[in-house]
Amino acid sequence: MFKILKRNQISAKGLSEFPSERYEIASEFSSPDAMLIRSYQLMPEEIAPSLKAIARAGAGVNNIPVAWCTEHGIPVFNTPGANANAVKELVLAALVLTSRGILKSIEFVKGLQAISDQKEMNSLVEKEKSRFAGQELQGKVFGVVGLGKIGSLVADMGLKLGMQVVGYDPELSVEAAWRLPNQIQRMENLPTLLSRSDYVSLHLPMLETTRHLINISNIRFFKNGARLLNFSRGEIVETSAVIAALNEAKLSQYATDFPAPDLLGRDDMVLMPHIGASTTEAEDLCAIMAVKQLVEFLEHGNICNSVNFPTLSLERNHGYRIAVTNKNIPKMLGKMLAMFADRNINVIEMLNKSRDDIAYNLIDIETPATPELLDALRGIEGVMNVRSL
Ligand SMILES: NC(=O)c1ccc[n+]([C@@H]2O[C@H](COP(=O)([O-])OP(=O)(O)OC[C@H]3O[C@@H](n4cnc5c(N)ncnc54)[C@H](O)[C@@H]3O)[C@@H](O)[C@H]2O)c1
Ligand SMILES: O=C(O)CC[C@@H](O)C(=O)O
Description:
By secondary structure, the chain is an alpha/beta fold. It has four domains: about 1-80 and about 280-310, 3-Layer(aba) Sandwich (Rossmann fold); about 85-95 and about 135-270, Rossmann fold (3-Layer(aba) Sandwich); about 100-135, no CATH class; about 310-389, ACT domain (Alpha-Beta Plaits). The protein is about 30% helix and about 20% strand. It contains twelve helices and 16 strands. Helix 3 packs across helix 6. The chain is elongated. The two termini are about 15 Å apart. (2R)-2-hydroxypentanedioic acid (2HG) binds near residues 38 and 58.
């Protein structure tokens, strides 16, 4: 039985993708084979030596010590795109909420409970409504920072709302570029995007290089009265810079899915409790994708959507499969193949791929892998782990 250690609330639909006859799922296991998590902040000291993989049912992996996992030969998976539509729809809400006095107007109407006369209510409503007036999105400039799975949907939505969309993504993949509508104007740098946009929405990962991407030095590039939307991660925006910009009316509104103590109690904030991916559809999709990727890896060694291992898949025809992770250094393949040759073992098929410091191999052999062969492979300097599948 494979043991899956689950953290956070994971969709039941997704969990049901684990074949029940071969998988046990629990929130405590002393020697789990894999972990399935959402936003749980995972520390290296919690990772048992038995752990073979970690799947994040979601996009961001900044809650997982990915570099540590790579050093220890553990692939980390995520589920790109599975919650992109859910985030896009919440960004739509934020665009509207930061444009019109909707939240305050609802509070105002809630406060009218003591009035029982319709005429009196009508007259008060008409008298006060000018306090909640706002502006329209149509015709405004919408700057989207990060044009991956979420940013591309958000940018497309902006176009459909009649906005003029400008985008900035210095790391844009060719595949992501193909997905973008050609009406999106590409900005050469962040200050240019900030200076042209009435609304700016951030859709990029939290990395050491993107921490405080919006900061005290570049916030001055914003247009006066611009709105900033952050549904990526709190740390991407320097909180004190945003507060200063709001105080000086440089920004008129800040909407974020990542509240912080300093942000509370202001009318120029729209704060939400990290609900970007909290829809039934996104939770199901993320969990289904994460579970399928784990099953493929645990049972067949195939890797899809890993953030630290190469993508690799070898069809299971016949023979006995061995999966080997090794350091990406010279002569490893030769040393491994020598182990098979020395024992007169026929290799039927094999795949080898590397990514940065890691190399990963699937080797199908004609005869069952003996414990002696597996130990010999483990004994090669540079081999990080060996599994017989
Ligand atoms: N609020 C939520 O609940 C929620 C849900 C899903 C994702 N997220 C966050 O959104 C982020 C993006 O998700 P995604 O699915 O679009 O990921 P993605 O990998 O598809 O896209 C991220 C894009 O950011 C770009 N990028 C990287 N560094 C950049 C930089 N310095 N400036 C501009 N662009 C840069 C990349 O090139 C990539 O195109 C996630 O990493 C996660 O932190 C939040
Ligand atoms: O799991 C969640 O609720 C949030 C997920 C989101 O932050 C992500 O990065 O995909």
